[in-house]
What we know:
Elements: H1 2-21, H2 25-28, H3 41-53, E1 59-63, H4 70-81, H5 97-103, E2 110-114, H6 121-131, E3 141-146, H7 153-164, E4 170-176, H8 184-187, E5 191-194, H9 200-214, E6 217-218, H10 220-230, H11 234-248, E7 251-252, H12 254-261, H13 266-277, H14 281-293, H15 298-315, H16 328-341, H17 343-359, H18 366-380
Parallel strand pairs: 1-4, 1-5, 2-3, 3-4, 6-7
Helix pairs in contact: 6-7, 9-10, 10-11, 10-12, 13-14, 14-18, 15-16, 15-17, 17-18
Amino acid sequence: MHVENREGDLFCILNISKMDQFIVSARKYRPSTFATVVGQEHITRTLKNAILTGQLPQAFLFCGPRGVGKTTCARILAKTINCEHRTPEGEACNQCENCRSFAEGGSMNIFELDAASNNSVDNMRELVKQVYIPPQTGRFKVYIIDEVHMLSAAAFNAFLKTLEEPPAYAKFILATTEKHKIIPTILSRCQVFDFRRIEGADIVAHLKYVAGQEQVHYEEGALEVIASKAEGGLRDALSIFDQLVNFTQGNLTYHGVLENLNVLDSDYYFRLIDHAHAANLSGALLLYQEVLAKGFGGQQFLTGLCEHMRNLMVSLDPQTLPLIDGGDALRQRYGQQAQQCGLGLLLRWLNVVSDFEYRFREANNKNLFVEVCLMKMATASMPES
């Protein structure tokens, strides 16, 4: 009995050790150079050129959606401008003392402040005092202020003069998801960089790399669903990826990902449009019942149908086909269905679906409301008598 307890204790210790060693993919595969930043080439190219020419502003403002690389680029920039042996391309060497201390989290020249929890005027006055102490090693002291829009009005005002005329060795990198909340006097003192949502193809490519490193088996369609669900945020995509790897035990299949994320397979919408195009009312209604049986609601169904109609409209012109998130096979399928239906019919369907989706909340009988929408779509395809 005593031995069994010891074995059980050992099992628990080993499990705890594994949990302690686990690092989420968003941190484990965080870019360490400008070249490895995903989907923000317009930003990284400008920053590298500024470093190479020595034309660094005193303050940067990084704006954009969450999880697209703002704080990551801020850290890379802070490390690179203090690097002792930068590469000819403007990248950090990752070997010098300053680079190593940054990687180990012990850099004395780089300070990060979360404005969401340090937003008072006293916090800002304390930061301003630190600014005027010269760096002990390296060329620059860099202050990264995340969620800067959360600073109070008094804190902004206490910061203004220092931001406008800082010591030559001080650089400020401000990051925000809500640029419109930054007061104009701050904006005018910063060089503004607008980060984009990351394209689905770039997210899928990065997920493939991570899956390869972690020896995760995947279907490409599964990664495309994850990228679509992340809506342009790489951090969100990696968080979803980690969750699904645990759920599927390292085997990411298309249908498994759809089930876990509660996403309706696009195949249902392709089939529905085929029924509507053939004026097959019974087929459309039966398909909707099939969707309900899988646990999806009318609102979710109509919202997905609106998106499908939008993709069909985009697919009519080959030049706008790349605007659809997904692989080449999916885009080709959209293009074929769009050509079969034609512009006139797609416009009539789009008007019907968007109107019903907008008025869905007012409906008393939700399922009947959706069925009437499908009836209108099917009858819109019937030849006029």
